[in-house]
Amino acid sequence: MFLFTKCNKNRTKVVHFYHLHKYNTAKELKNCFLQNKVYKMLHISKKSSIFAPKYVQTPKNMKKLSLFIIALACACAHAQETRYIGGDISALPLYEQHNSAYKDAYGKNISNLITWFVNDCGWNTFRVRIFVNPTRADQDGTANPSVCQDLAYVTALGQRIKAAGANFMLDFHYSDTWVDATHIQAPAAWKGKPDAAMADSVGAYTRRVLTALNEANATPDMVQVGNEIMYGLCGIKVKPYEDASSNWTGYLGLLKAGCNAVREVCPEARIIIHTDRPTNSGYNAFFYNKLINGGVDFDVIGLSYYPFWHGYLTDAQVANKTDKNNLVKAINRLATDFPEKKVHIVECAYNFQYWPSKGVNYDTRDVWTCAADGNTSVGISGQYNFVKDLVDALKPLENVEGISYWFPEEAGNGDDTNWNTSKGTVIVSWQNRGFWNEDKSTTGHAINRTGQITGGKTAADVCAPYYMGKFVGFEPQGITNPSANEGVQAVKTFRNGQLIIERNGILYSSDGKRL
Questions:
Q1: CB–CB of 87/127 below 8 Å?
Q2: Hey, is 266 helix, strand or coil?
Q3: Which residues, other chains included, contact 299 with Cβ-Cβ below 8 Å and sequence gap of 6+?
Q4: Between residues 82 and 280, which one has the greater pLDDT?
Q5: Which phi and psi (to 5°) does residue 282 adopt?
Q6: What's the rounded mean pLDDT across residues 316-340?
Q7: Non-local CB neighbours of 172 within 8 Å, separated by 6+ positions
Q8: DSSP per-residue letters across 402-440
Q9: CATH 3.20.20.80: which residues of the chain?
């Protein structure tokens, strides 16, 4: 980020803040300098340290400084890259349709969960899945109302996300129901197509969806071409290691068709390739090298991370374990293997009640204990500590650009006025990983909270969604009595991807510093 000022005899007047990534070329940056008649320039690094000012006597000397400007632009283009924090809120409209209500850390009802996440928690990114012809059922045919995200549904939710000033991440499943490492079925309308025709379908469908979103002012800022696709997509199987059964030609054709369609229709969107073996560095290296060498054009390595399936977070947590693999170690390896790619944790979650009864590969309760709940098995404090440790461990890693929590809006079965535990209106089986209480509540679901907000604490000290904002430098106000602040008008917006707070006519950065 650059701060430009004009020198006027004995005083200096601030003109504006500019972010280098706003300018596509050095020429645009130079024109910006000329248009503002820049005389003095300070460079503020990502650590907010101020370097020595460079003085420019007159705009006539700008030609002499062209090389300097270009070099500076290249050297600092990534000095303050945008980071992303948020969650997958694909089921939120369903909960809203069925009158589910949410409460914040102070017990007040939340009128709009999206804007609350943005304004109170500092979230700046929301993920939404899309199915081709959603079946409202799981892969085995079991009814599941939350498998409903068609184009109309996604368009309406995408518009709300963009209106809130946040980033919209679109997750293509290229199926009629869930796709993951063990389920790679094609949508019913595409089944049986040969590889080339399947790739054509992927490309055409991607273009159609993105074109419609563009026209509806709901253009995605990030696009996942597939969901957890390390083992295949649309029925075409591959494996993240040498195996004669892998159909890499057909598989790469699908990905290239999808990615090319994104570049064509949404050229500014970041393309994410999402896999689900985050702690297996060997698999990651094999898989992503296959894609890069095969000509797949993408920007970001997307990972799922669920500790009970994928293991521990840090070296310290595995010090006494036989399996030394962990997420931070694997992400550092990705930085070495793929220095040009950023990493985004596009899914993560941790139970606050009812430890998973099956499919558990790692019992991580020895790390994220719940003594504060009087329960050494699983509890709200365990979930909070997981989120806190995840944010704290990933924030220093320069190749990690984002964290997205999966299904934060989970709040029971759905319709709290017509409760039926066997026939939910949103979900029929609790995941127990969201941020609100699951039990029936006609007055609003209480947020998961480890304790009271007293003694100078803020909501981030007791509630996980508030703490997540720290990943992007957001700090919630330490308000023990919300009504005392009702007279303070604060407007929070995103400018060039950075959260800016305007309070009583004064601008502040997300970390509370006056601009």
A1: yes
A2: coil
A3: 270, 271, 272, 341, 342
A4: 280
A5: -65, -45
A6: 97
A7: 130, 206, 209, 223, 224, 225, 226, 227, 258
A8: EEEEE-TT--SSS-TTS--TTS-SS-SS----SSB--S-
A9: 135-362+386-397
Q: What is the pTM of this model?
A: 0.81
**pLDDT tens digits along 415-473:** 887 766 556 789 988 999 999 999 988 899 999 999 999 888 999 999 999 999 999 99
CATH class of 135-362+386-397: alpha beta
Task: Give the amino acid at 478.
Answer: G
User: Is 290:232 a contact under the CB 8 Å cutoff?
Assistant: no
Q: Which residues pair with 252 in a beta bridge?
A: none
| 402 alpha-carbon distance from chain centroid | 5
DSSP one-letter string for 94-121? HHHHTT--EE-TTSPEES-HHHHHHHHH
What gap in Å lies between CA 341 and CA 434, rounded to an integer? 30
Task: Please say whether the beta carbons of 40 and 6 come within 8 A.
Answer: yes
| Amino acid, res. 235 | G
C-alpha–C-alpha distance, residues 115 and 124, integer Å: 10
Instruction: Give the pLDDT confidence score for residue 111 in this predicted structure.
Output: 96
* Mean confidence (pLDDT) of the chain: 83
